[in-house]
Design a protein that fits this description.
Its cofactor is pyridoxal 5'-phosphate. By secondary structure, the protein is of the alpha/beta class. The protein folds into 2 domains: 13-52 and 296-393, Aspartate Aminotransferase, domain 1 (Alpha-Beta Complex); 71-290, Type I PLP-dependent aspartate aminotransferase-like (Major domain) (Aspartate Aminotransferase, domain 2, 3-Layer(aba) Sandwich). 39% of the residues lie in helices and 13% in strands. It has a 7-stranded mixed beta sheet with strand order 2-8-7-6-5-3-4, sandwiched between helices. A 3-stranded antiparallel beta sheet has the order 9-12-11. β5, α8 (191-201) and β6 (207-211) form a beta-alpha-beta unit. α3 crosses α10, α7 (162-168) runs parallel beside α8 (191-201) and α11 (296-316) packs parallel to α13 (378-393). The longest helix is centred in the C-terminal third of the chain and has 21 residues, at 296-316. The protein binds pyridoxal-5'-phosphate. Pyridoxal-5'-phosphate (PLP) is lined by residues 47, 108-110, 134, 136, 179, 183, 211, 213, 241, 243, 249, 254.
Length: 395
C-alpha cells in the first residue's frame, strides 16, 4: 500500500533509475543558487555572453514569424541552415560536410552531446575526459551505462597530450572528448598538438567527440579541428553551435557534423528526442551563419582585452594561473591559499560579494582551482578583481 503525502512520493523514489538518482546538481548550479541569497553580488559564474544577439539576427527571426515559418522542419534542420552551417565550417576551419547527410541541427550543443553519446556508447564503454572539463558530459555518459575516465591535464597547463591519452586507453575506450577552446580553462590545442593525438588514435576503433562550441573565440592563432587531419574525419563527431559565437544561448541552436554512416544513426536518436529544433531559431541561425559569419570577431576582441586584464590582475594578486587562449574563462590555482575550492568560493561570496565557481565542479581533481567567467563588463571585472585581491590579502 503506497501512501501519497503532498507529492513527496513516499515509498516510490526507489523506482527512479539509480543512474539518474546518482546525478548531482552541478557545482555551477549550486553556486548560482547560493548567489541568489545575497544582494549586491558581482557574479563571475556564468557561461552567458554579455553581448546582445546581433540585431540583424533578431530581425530575421521576426521576419520568419511574419512569414509563418512556424511548422516542423525536417528532423535534421532546414536544408538552408544545414547548407549555411556546412559552408561556415568549410570557410572558417577547412572542414567539409555534406549538408544533405552529414549535418544535424540540434537543441543547443547540449543536445548534440546527448544524441552523440547515446548513439555510440554502450554498457561498459569508457570515455576519456580531459579534465578539468565542462560538467555536461559525465551525467550523460553515466546514463548510457558507460564510464567517464578523467584524465588529469593540470600538470601540463591543462593540455591533453597523446602521452596522457596513452596512459588511459583500454580495450573498452569508445570515445575521447576533445574540447578546445576549453571550458573551464580557456586553453586551446594547436594543430601540432592535435596531430600528435591523431597519430596515436588513427589506427584505433574509437570515436572523437570534438566540442568546438568556442571555436570563434580563439585569441592568439586560429582554431584547428581534429576532423581536418588525415584519417580523423571518419571517427570524429564535431559539435558546434551559436550559443557562444553569436550570443544566442536562449535560441538553442547546436550543430553536429559527422560522417554519413554515423550521422544517419545519430539523426534517429535526435528525431525521437526532439523532432526538430525551433523553426524560428533556425531561420535566425541562417542569418547568423550567412550575413553574420564574422559577428563573433568584435566580441572575441573584447574578451581578449578582458582576458589580459583578468590574467594580469590575478598574477598581481599572487595567483598561479595559466594564461587562457580562448572562450571567456580563466582558471587560477588557489592551492597556495590553503582553502578547498568550495570554501574559497563561499567565503569570497560571503565576505566580498564576488561569485566564482569552485574548481571541484569540473573534475575530481579540480579542488585547487576556481573558475572565473569574464563574460561581464570591464567595469564589473575591474571591481571584482579588486575585491578578490583584497580577499586573498586577508587570508
Ligand atoms: C564546452 C561546452 N559545451 C557545450 C555547452 C552547451 O552549449 P549550449 O548552450 O549550446 O547547449 C557549453 C555551455 O556552456 C559548453 O561550455
Amino acid at each position: 500500500m503506497i501512501t501519497y503525502i503532498d507529492g513527496t512520493g513516499e515509498g516510490m523514489e526507489h523506482l527512479i533509475r539509480p543512474e539518474v538518482q546518482a546525478i548531482e546538481v552541478s557545482g555551477i548550479r549550486k553556486m548560482a543558487n547560493k548567489v541568489s541569497q545575497y544582494d549586491g553580488v558581482l557574479s563571475l559564474t556564468i557561461g552567458q555572453p554579455d553581448f546582445p544577439t546581433p540585431k540583424h539576427i533578431l530581425d530575421a527571426a521576426k521576419q520568419a514569424i511574419d512569414n509563418g515559418e512556424t511548422v516542423y522542419t525536417p528532423n535534421a534542420g532546414t536544408l538552408k541552415l544545414r547548407k549555411a552551417a556546412s559552408e561556415f565550417l568549410q570557410r572558417k576551419y577547412g572542414l567539409s560536410y555534406d549538408p544533405a547527410e552529414e549535418v544535424i541541427v540540434t537543441v543547443g550543443a547540449s543536445e548534440a552531446i546527448d544524441v552523440a553519446f547515446r548513439t555510440i556508447l554502450e554498457e561498459g564503454s569508457e570515455v576519456l575526459l580531459p579534465g578539468p572539463i565542462y560538467p555536461g558530459y559525465e551525467p550523460i555518459i553515466r546514463m548510457c551505462g558507460a564510464l567517464p575516465v578523467h584524465v588529469d591535464t593540470s600538470g601540463n597547463s591543462f593540455k591533453l597530450t597523446a602521452d596522457l591519452i596513452k596512459e588511459h586507453l583500454t580495450e573498452r575506450t569508445r570515445c575521447i572528448v576533445l574540447a578546445s577552446p576549453s571550458n573551464p580553462t580557456g586553453c586551446t590545442l594547436s594543430l601540432e598538438e592535435l596531430q600528435e593525438i591523431a597519430a596515436l588514435v588513427e589506427e584505433r576503433e574509437l570515436f572523437i567527440l570534438s566540442d568546438e562550441i568556442y571555436s570563434e573565440l580563439v585569441f592568439d592563432g586560429t582554431h584547428s579541428s581534429i576532423a581536418s587531419l588525415p584519417g580523423m574525419r571518419d571517427k570524429t563527431i564535431v559539435i558546434n553551435g551559436l550559443s557562444k559565437s553569436h550570443s544566442m544561448t536562449g535560441w538553442r541552436i547546436g550543430l553536429l557534423f559527422a560522417p554519413a554512416y554515423l550521422a544517419k544513426h545519430i539523426v534517429k536518436v535526435h528525431q525521437y528526442n526532439v523532432t526538430c529544433t525551433s523553426s524560428i531559431s533556425q531561420a535566425a541561425a541562417v542569418e547568423a551563419l550567412t550575413n553574420g559569419i564574422d559577428d563573433a570577431l568584435p566580441m572575441r576582441d573584447e574578451y581578449a582585452r578582458r582576458r589580459d586584464f583578468a590574467y594580469n590582475s590575478l598574477v598581481e594578486a599572487g595567483f598561479d594561473v595559466v594564461k587562457p587562449n580562448g572562450a571567456f574563462y580563466i582558471f587560477p590555482s588557489i592551492a597556495k591559499f590553503g582553502l578547498d575550492s568550495t570554501t574559497f568560493a563561499h567565503r569570497l561570496l560571503e565576505e566580498k560579494r564576488v561569485a566564482v565557481v569552485p574548481g571541484a565542479a569540473f573534475a575530481p581533481f579540480g579542488d585547487e582551482y576556481i573558475r572565473i567567467s569574464y563574460a561581464c563588463s570591464m567595469e564589473m571585472l575591474q571591481e571584482a578583481m579588486e575585491r578578490i585581491k583584497s580577499f586573498v590579502q586577508g587570508l
